[in-house]
Design goal:
Elements: E1 2-3, H1 6-14, H2 18-31, E2 35-39, E3 42-46, E4 57-62, H3 67-71, E5 95-97, E6 111-112, H4 114-123, H5 127-137, E7 143-144, H6 158-163, E8 203-204, E9 207-208, H7 211-222, E10 227-237, E11 242-252, E12 258-265, E13 278-284, E14 289-295, E15 298-305, H8 313-319, H9 328-338, E16 340-348, E17 354-363, E18 371-382, E19 388-399, E20 402-413, H10 426-431, E21 434-436, E22 441-442, E23 449-451, H11 468-471
Parallel strand pairs: 4-5, 5-6, 15-23
Antiparallel strand pairs: 1-7, 2-3, 3-4, 8-9, 10-11, 10-20, 11-12, 12-13, 13-14, 14-15, 15-21, 16-17, 17-18, 18-19, 19-20, 21-22
Helix pairs in contact: 2-5, 7-9
């Protein structure tokens, strides 16, 4: 049996009210072992003490696109033409959930759409919980009638990677008891009468044969596209304490206007936003560069001029998420895949689209920070064109004489459908305001123009480092 198609899933969501959608999202999180509740039109998700994101509670605002728009939610291309209600969450929201496929007028917070929810519901929970979730909250089965022209190979390990695509605390792997495959079908053998598989650049049936080709294809395919990039890297001690954490979300459009949000935590975290914990939001339309920085109980709004690459869209899409050097995604992925023994699994959706999943379980210490690397696990989801849509790496190592656990996730979303708007605080940045972190205003007498964040040193792409020194000005 093939998995429920994206259009059918969106149609099932469209039949739910806003409250019913919120209940579904909360149940989905509970099926994945997290505490979740519905509160004032939002789903409040609590990350456990061992949560990868190193954060406590996240509020996911539930979008109501309007009755007419909901009825045609399966047709993403009609959303704007129907004047759907924009995704406009309240200020306290950490993210938004919409029943649409490709939300209209994307907000400044991360948005989980119908396709993201489908991926997580199909592949991110154990089989028994998945069936119960679909029947109780959506009134349908997670599988569809078989298509005579379409196979449904097993999705072994796919859930870990697919779930990494989902945002705002919804990103996590499949529980250990999750089965392989939506319908539990075995993977077809090599003797099946099937056409030869055409793999993305650098991939073969055996694994990643040419890491450099895959890295180049990733960057080349995204070179003219808009997209949203999310990266979270957390290092914990053996006691479970956060040693360092860097989380960044970057929205970039075709014109290379961008909005970047970054957050640091932990005593060994990078200091480019100030002493951690610190948060910063950066925006530019290519001419004006503005930022909002929060640290030590104060919030600063100002404008700045980029210095070289630092502060530009390339800095936020290639330097910040990939270890604080100038390697960028192509060199980083090439380095990591070259240091890992990999295998490739292939799936086909009901609409015929292929998905490729790279799985690695051995990792050479030359590819990462630290020594005595153990218990490594690498997963990646790759599109037919070679875009590494989701990447997840976890391992144990010794760093600065201390045993740590490293978890790193990178995901690309809304490729070709990301837009960037002026932030609501732009006027404050143009005036150079200062406020307390809780919002009390203390305007400065003059507009302060700050320099762009000092570029991190141009280190070699090998190894990928994330130490405090690597991010230092």
């Amino acid at each position: 049996m093939a998995p429920l198609s994206s259009a059918a899933f969106a149609a099932a969501l469209a039949r739910r009210s806003r409250d019913e959608l919120a209940a579904f999202v909360a149940a989905l999180e509970r099926a994945r072992g997290r505490s979740a509740r519905v509160e004032d039109g939002a789903v409040v998700v609590e990350d456990g003490d061992d949560g990868d994101d190193g954060v406590g509670e996240r509020r996911l605002w539930v979008h109501d696109p309007g009755r007419l728009c909901s009825r045609t939610a399966r047709f993403a291309r009609f959303a704007r033409a129907l004047r759907c209600r924009p995704v406009d969450p309240p200020p306290d929201a950490d993210g938004a959930v919409t029943p649409l496929r490709g939300p209209p007028a994307p907000s400044d917070v991360p948005v989980v759409d119908a396709d993201d929810l489908r991926d997580l519901a199909l592949y991110g929970v154990p089989a028994a919980a998945r069936d119960r979730l679909f029947r109780t909250h959506l009134g349908c089965s997670p599988t569809a009638a078989p298509d005579a022209t379409t196979r449904s190979p097993a999705l072994v390990a796919a859930g870990v990677v697919l779930a990494a695509l989902v945002v705002v605390g919804l990103a996590a792997g499949v529980p250990p008891d999750a089965p392989g495959g939506v319908a539990g079908q075995p993977t077809p053998s090599a003797t099946d009468d099937a056409p030869a598989e055409r793999y993305p650049p650098g991939l073969t049936e055996a694994g990643v044969a040419d890491p450099q080709a895959l890295g180049r294809a990733h960057e080349d395919t995204l070179s003219g596209e808009s997209y949203t990039l999310r990266s979270t890297r957390t290092v914990r001690t053996t006691d479970g304490d956060v040693r360092s954490r860097l989380s960044v979300t970057v929205r970039v459009d075709e014109r290379r206007a961008f909005l970047a949000r970054a957050e640091t935590a932990g005593p060994a975290a990078p200091v480019f936003l100030g002493d951690p914990p610190a948060r910063g939001v950066y925006w530019s339309n290519g001419t004006t560069y503005a930022r909002r920085l929060t640290s030590d109980g104060e919030r600063v709004y100002n404008t700045f001029d980029p210095v070289g690459r630092a502060g530009t869209w390339r800095y936020w899409t290639a330097t910040v998420p990939f270890g604080g050097d100038r390697a960028g995604p192509a060199a980083t992925y090439a380095n990591l895949f070259a240091a890992t023994e990999t295998r490739v699994l292939t799936t086909r959706e009901p609409d015929g689209v292929r998905r490729y999943f790279v799985v690695g379980e051995t990792l050479a210490p030359t590819g990462v920070e630290g020594s005595a690397v153990e218990n490594a696990a690498l997963e990646a989801a790759v599109t037919p064109s070679g875009v590494v849509r989701a990447f997840s790496l976890a391992y144990e190592a010794t760093v600065d004489g201390e045993r740590v656990t490293v978890r790193w996730r990178v995901g690309y979303e809304a490729v070709g459908r990301t837009s960037v708007r002026e932030p609501a605080w732009l006027d404050r940045a143009l005036r150079g305001e200062r406020t307390t972190a809780n919002g009390a205003t203390n305007e400065s007498d003059t507009v302060t123009t700050a320099a762009a964040p000092t570029s991190w040193h141009a280190a070699s792409p090998t190894p990928v480092t994330a130490s405090r020194a690597a991010y230092a000005p």
